[in-house]
Hints:
By secondary structure, the protein is an all-alpha fold.
Amino acid sequence: MLKYVSFFLILVFVIACDNNIEYESDELKGSQIEPLEITYENVQKIFTIKCIACHNNTAYSLNYLSLEADVAFDNLINIKSQQRNNIDLIKPFEPENSYLYMKLIGNDIEGTKMPQNSALPTREIELIQKWIQEGAKL
Ligand code: HEC
């Protein structure tokens, strides 16, 4: 019995350490959003750092969703997705019915999971999720 208990404890320890390592390597990427307060300002920071390389005002002229700070909010709230035109990009209070959030987690989407080049760290996805859940306010 003791053997099983200690095996379990070691397993928990290993998993805990593993999470830490992931967390630290996230930090080292150098583009983390701190502090992670649930505000539109922090959501926009994620868009600016992680999305506008592709989703910018220049590409928007080619019918592309722009996430630049001056237009992102207006382009998202209660605006239909181009890929799935029965779903809003952001539907306040309903992250699971917000196409932008679905694209971040890769759930029931057309095309690829966003950002195209690498997934967002979990806590940045959670920040966007909670912001939508709280009403997606400016
Ligand atoms: C390397 C380029 C690139 C980056 C970076 C990128 N995207 Fe995209 N995004 C695309 C392309 C290309 C499409 C269309 C094809 C597809 O969905 O795979 C797209 C489509 C989308 C759509 C669907 C738009 C609609 O109207 O249906 C959303 C939402 C989206 N991206 C959100 C994001 C968010 C949020 C980020 C940052 C966290 C991001 N993207 C980062 C290239 C990118």
